[in-house]
């Protein structure tokens, strides 16, 4: 969510001023702490991120962020249930990481230069290429953001979304009238009541909003994505082994999709596959897991617990979910996307 | 005054006749009154006409997901399906009797206090104030005497809201009394300390106090030092709330005449006896409306604990509306939460009124 970003950063900057380096002084190894605790502490969205982290009727956590936490727990502890989810508002994510209240934040936090360089944090990769887009009623007959000159635009007040659209409209020499709202619900109500022509927010938010509207077919998401919102798991800089484990957990999920290894087939492929890449990935040949301090068959366990990246995406955001978000830039590089697994060798 | 013999007095008008006269006298005295009454009744009927088809006639009461609900009616299935979660949070289903028992004990205690003329009231009062909270804590948390431990991260929903509200109320009530006594006593050290605490706590936004307690406090402890989130939240809120209670009590204190202190001194009562026997009972009696007022705002403030990642009633309902299965049920969720909060606050204000009445006569 973007509306808290400004306020959160201000609070954090202030918080960091009064607590210089305390958190970094005697943290020790994250991996050791997790093993001793027998539980991974994973920061996720506060149960309000449809497709990212939600609670089902029985109080079980679901979503893309949640599955990614489970994957790390399997890699480290061999058990998808050994993870404790910490629901976090955006403004407390970075402080929670630094105070050691969580080990990793799989929460939607955009990877930016300032955050990476100022806060002693590491992004271990990118699991979703999100970006800001527009949703409009089909009735107004617009099919490109470039047709929006003079449009009224619903936007969250004080968010980076607001900064992004003014950049976008200025660079294309267009004008717009902002109609600000405080929340997604309020902006959606404004849009449906016709108080604005288009509503702008991150693509993942707009797609899930569209699926909840009374007549989803009456709305269209314009093709232009006007900002970059790369989302990825964040860890403290103190323990390189842990950030390697998180990075390679994400990476093997993507590699498994590329190699066609999925939840169903993974056990069988350990024995039957002749592909040397698959054999290395699944620990059939080589001693790859040990180099990270993990079991040699860690990838087999991870994939049989949560599936490969494609399965995680489809289940939570994509075609098997109610949201039906297109893969877009988060498709494999072989399918025209940006996901490019690093060589596992 | 001319006495009319009873036999000759006009017959009492029939009940319907009386009702009609009262109606006429109160609502249709003249044309303007009549128009106003008709307008207000018409508006109320129109609102009902708008709401009832959505809320009742076209509503769907049971179902496994939003897809089972009718488009143009309320989807109460969202509430009925997740009702247990809204009440108990993530409390293990086999252990929920413990929450019910704790709630039941409190209810019995409060009802016993409300019955006029019941003997042993001071004993019951002390039991509700001091013994029950400890029993309830033990019941909810468990971990001894064969009760399985249930971590506070599994608490949630209405149960969490009420737990936080009652424990903050109890703690801040006592703390507020202490701060009030400190501020109004003659010793400069206590006076300055209390005044500082009150002004500091009162001058900060509650959200910031909570944020500091949960997110910043762990920086000052060695890592791995596990601070209980719920306990931190309750203490932070109690500190905040006690500043308000202290000022409320001080207001009540100022209403008490100087003569009473002098009378106490003349009787040879010391500081504590003066306050315990004479001053505080009057302070509490004078401040009942303000205490109820603050308690109602305290209950509504509990919804702010969502900033620290605890799932109180509002937060857990809100989270439910993001579940892909129930997307689009925001309105139903808010209506439900609003209704529950309204009922709680209304009960509180009624309790306050009856307390005032009984204190005035007693």
Can you walk through the features of this model?
The complex is a heterodimer of chains A (345) and B (362). Chain A contains 15 helices and 14 strands. With 345 residues, chain A is of the alpha/beta class. Chain A has two domains: 5-129 and 230-328, 3-Layer(aba) Sandwich (D-Maltodextrin-Binding Protein, domain 2); 132-227, Periplasmic binding protein-like II (D-Maltodextrin-Binding Protein, domain 2, 3-Layer(aba) Sandwich), CATH 3.40.190.10. A five-stranded mixed beta sheet of chain A has the order 4-1-5-14-6, with helices on both faces. A five-stranded mixed beta sheet of chain A has the order 10-9-11-8-12, with helices on both faces. In chain A, strands 2-3 form a two-stranded antiparallel ribbon. In chain A, helix 7 links the parallel strand 9 and strand 10. Chain B has 14 helices and no strands. The model of chain B has no long low-confidence stretch (mean pLDDT 86). At the A-B interface, strand 2, strand 4, helix 5 and helix 9 of A face helix 3, helix 8 and helix 13 of B.
User: What structural class do the secondary elements of chain B suggest?
Assistant: mainly alpha
Question: In angstroms, what is the radius of gyration of chain A?
Answer: 21 Å
CATH first level of the domain at 77-91 and 150-361 in chain B: Mainly Alpha
Query: Total helix count of chain B?
Result: 14
Secondary-structure element pattern of chain B, one letter each: HHHHHHHHHHHHHH
CATH names the topology of the domain at 77-91 and 150-361 in chain B as MetI-like fold
Question: How can the largest sheet of chain B be summarized?
Answer: none
- Average pLDDT rating of chain B: 86
Provide mean pLDDT of chain A, rounded.
86
Helix coverage percent of chain B: 55-70%
Task: Estimate the global geometry of chain A from the Cα principal axes.
Answer: globular
Number of domains of chain A: 2
What is the subunit arrangement here? heterodimer
Terminus-to-terminus distance of chain B: 38 Å
- Kindly state the number of beta strands of chain B: 0
Low-confidence stretches of chain A: 16-28
Helix content of chain A: 25-40%
Helix run count of chain A = 15
Amount of beta strand of chain A: 15-25%
Taken in chain order, the helices and strands of chain A follow as: HHHEEEHEHEHEEEEHEHEHEEEHHHHHH
